Amino acid sequence: MPKVRGHSVSTSHYIDGKWIEGDCHFDVFSPINGEHLTEMASGSPANVDAAIESAQSAFPAWANLGAEGRLPYLQRFAAEIGKRKDAICEVESADAGILLSRLQHGIILRSMLNITWFAEAALKLQDKIIETPQATHHIRHDPAGVCAIIIPWNAPLMLTTWKLGPSLASGNTCIIKPPEWAPLSSALLLEAANAAELPPGVLNMVQGPGSSTGALLTSDPRLARISFTGSIPTAKLIGKSAAENLVPCSLELGGKSPFIVLEDADIEQAAKTGALMYRNATQVCLAGTRFLVHKSIYDEFVNKMKSYVSALLIGDPQIEDTEVGPLIHPQQLERVQGYVHRAVEKGAKILWGGKPHEAGDLYYAPTMLSDVNQEDEIVQEEVFGPVLTLQTFESDEQVIAMANGTKYGLGGVCFGKQLHAQQVANQVKTGFIWVNSFGIRDLAAPFGGCKNSGNGREGGDWSFDFFCDVKDVVIPKKPFVPSFAQR
User: Under a CB-based contact definition with an 8 Å cutoff, are residues 411 and 255 in contact?
Assistant: First the structure.
């Protein structure tokens, strides 16, 4: 096995409990400095077929274990992830450019919890009772079957476990398709699953590009569910493939979330939180990227936020105090530069940033653009890089219309007096919105978007509702008399 940051990492597929070499390969580079990390196997039709066949074969026994029987396997899985903390965090940071400090102090623990929380929550699923005068309804959550888990490059470990937790706990078997721009932590995750002795076929992985390996996987009629996080164009392709076989999809897509600062906001708190939007080079779907600031506090807010942004440490994400790392890939840098260039050509003003950063080839300076219009591309389209926009408003009605004035509806942030901010937040069409805060999450709460930001919800029972076939077993309370009039 090749070594990445001193840790051995498999470059193979994982199918039916075995590491399987590939006939074709693709290169993996670090966004930190362009270093060639390794070559990964690229999944062929035969590899995809074998993974699905293995998952199908393993499904009956895994499903029949029940939630109590699956619990110790999943607890061991989480524990094995914890044993590999250093390797997983250091490899994912090198591979995806994610801040090492965030991985070590937050993401790795959340990833373990993603497995154990859902494993324990599944114990409460079965036989929820609804009593009516006519019958007792036993509501069951039965496992759906083989699930495809397709992951983006901006948070591979966290998002893989976020989907695997409820899917495996429900009794499904799974096939992971990691992102080709950041596939390495998924290989370490499968090592943890193997060490935890998950039965062969319960969890499989096929590496490769989405355009080939991913397309083969999502078009297969043997799948019972597809869970995808990523871009809108890719989601549309997946949706078309899934529709041919009527396979349900859960889609968590992009965001262009408003960051609203009302006239009665704590400006210091809002500005300091605003600077956090640049973490991970704003390659975070949750980030508030459209700043909507009341005209009466515009100057004070801009000056305060600028001072916080200027203090951000930009550079190698594997250094403890770094706050802004690189973009993932040269294509992403080209995309970000293109958006800024076109916005400036249309009349946007650069308040700060607006150019590559000297930290390295894939680093872009935290940027804020003002003098933009609601219909402008830079306001309407997701950049997925450290480029924010700033607009002003004069009334609640105006800012609500502006907040709702894109095709996206994932997240949002609203700062102001508590009741006032909540009243505004209630009218923003989005899957979730933070009031006077940012990033507070709980596994029991729903997560997802509306409009073009996706469909379905993840978290709590919402995850189980997707990954299960919800069934009503009806037991009559008195002898049943057949009648043609009944429906």
Answer: yes
Q: State the catalytic residue, choosing from 89, 285, 414, 468.
A: 285
Judge contact between 7 and 191, C-beta under 8 A.
Answer: no
Q: How far apart are CA 302 and CA 174, in angstroms?
A: 47
Domains contained in the chain, CATH given: 3-253+449-473 (3.40.605.10), 257-435 (3.40.309.10)
Let me know if 252 is a catalytic residue: yes
| 161 sits in which H/E element | helix 156-170
Query: How many separate helices (H) and strands (E) can be counted in the chain?
Result: 16, 22
Separation between Cα atoms, residue 368 and residue 386, nearest integer Å: 8
HSE on the CB side for 21, CA within 13 Å?
2
**Do the Cβ atoms of 463 and 166 come closer than 8 Å?**
yes
**Is 24 annotated as catalytic?**
no
- 5 dihedral zone (left: phi>0; alpha: psi -120 to 50; beta): left
Query: In this structure, what DSSP letter does residue 425 have?
Result: H
Alpha-carbon distance of 348 to 372, in angstroms, equals 5
Angle, alpha carbons 177-178-182 (nearest 5°): 165
**Tens digit of pLDDT per residue, the chain (487 long)?**
889 999 999 999 999 999 999 888 999 999 999 999 999 999 999 999 999 999 999 999 999 999 999 999 999 999 999 999 999 999 999 999 999 999 999 999 999 999 999 999 999 987 789 999 999 999 999 999 999 999 999 999 999 999 999 999 999 999 999 999 999 999 999 999 999 999 999 999 999 999 999 999 999 999 999 999 999 999 999 999 999 999 999 999 999 999 999 999 999 999 999 999 999 999 999 999 999 999 999 999 999 999 999 999 999 999 999 999 999 999 999 999 999 999 999 999 999 999 999 999 999 999 999 999 999 999 999 999 999 999 999 999 999 999 999 999 999 999 999 999 999 999 999 999 999 999 999 999 999 999 999 999 999 999 999 999 999 999 999 998 887 765 5
* Tally of residues, the chain: 487
Which residue matches tokens 């997701």?
382
Marked catalytic residue, from 252, 323, 382, 458: 252
Model pTM above 0.85 = yes
**Per-position DSSP letters for 389-405, written without gaps between them:** EEEEESSHHHHHHHHT-
